[in-house]
């Protein structure tokens, strides 16, 4: 055989072997219909299973057509350009069942949703921890336009659960009073964690342990604290024996901010910064965000103004500062918004702040309100640290920030919470029109009118009276004891009418003296630079002889905090029972609808916990 034909034969045989190998590899990697290589549902197969909570207030959300949204099983951080989004939408229509038609198995609680805290892991560019659903196997069209730097990845300590990312905080342990008598933390009135957990439960899943922040559960509810007769706030102290451990007591520090009526508050300039990227196309994201803004506008005053900025692949000024009374013009601008493109959140933040700072003054409340699923995948500022460093100068000039989260499947809770903390504002999560009305209608005045800033708490326990103590929650609000009187150290804000509640679990000494602790609160006036300090004694007279003898507000707050500790698998709550917290909450509802809903949620958590324990 001639050398020419010999070479051609070898080439042909080699090519045939290569093709056979590729076919074999593809066949071995091809999963069963509707499943990924890891046995997981394909994204398009569950594109609509992350439905909004089943309550009548969500009819508006459900009425919208199936969107090309990021499904719950899809990795956090994944984004599409407009063409890819349209392709995904077409696939979803072809393969995805409607929420009402979804198989029951898809809506069942995932087996991994147990009450054991996950190990901490770093996130890659997709925002998914090691062993999670990275984007390495995704088609090139789905890769992020810009990856995070190594330094940003090192700073990112978030964890991913079902595509959503959360910051993992280690629950506070008991502290020996003789070794450290001081407990110092910043005020927090955020509520996003509770709303997110509620959505998980209403969809048949236990919330991820790292998604539960005790203080945001407790502060979601209103408490009937007497308002101050003078000054910015009053302090209410109370304690009672624990229903879980006879050797321990629960102690509550409650703060009530002064109430400022809608007509009394300062004029407000709100810059709504709306995420219109492709990931916001879901009916529980951009459409719900638009309706939320309309609720807010309806509740503004004649002297208030509104501006609208959007960001996707680029930033766009949609509406110049407009009187809130010009509802028709504002609504017309809102109704033009559509979702598509990447997510240049950092650039959008800087643009919104530049608008807001123009009207910032001691006589005007200037606030940026971000409405987003919290993702950021293109642009110069991808991490919370990078975003805040670019807008720090605006924060120092008095511009405050509210972050409002929407949707599930790629929700970046950790980013939203950190931005609100550093931006001197609040973080909320809106899962329904009911919640939108609560945030933008009921709580609007308090959100806008800050009555005290850089509010710090320091509780000094008497070692002769208290042998050990544990602060329930506030792990991400911890402040070094030495920084309590350092007025340059940033802390939390309290708005008009807001309540702040913190609970401790303590063990009393055998022959405890009358004074158990001293509660100190340090805060600045809204436009002040120097803080004032107040001190309040906690004595045995503040302790009730039994939990039944305590006020309804105290019993309910304990029930909420204990439930949160159980859901996040706090070591100190090992052996605690949801049945006990449910019974405690039931006796303190007092006709309040939010409290009634909470009791139902505990029942759902109990059922899911039981099912998980049985392996169902």
TrEMBL record:
Occurrences of domain VWFA (ranges): 269-444
InterPro entries (alphabetical): CLCR, Uncharacterised_YfbK_N, VWF_A, vWFA_dom_sf, YfbK_C
Region (Disordered): 30-100, 146-167
Record carries keyword Signal: yes
Low complexity bias: start-end ranges: 84-100
Biased composition (Basic and acidic residues): 147-159
Leader peptide range in chain numbering: 1-25
Keywords of the record: Signal
Pfam families: VWA (PF00092), vWF_A (PF12450), YfbK_C (PF12034)
Protein known as: DUF3520 domain-containing protein
Native species: Corallococcus aberystwythensis
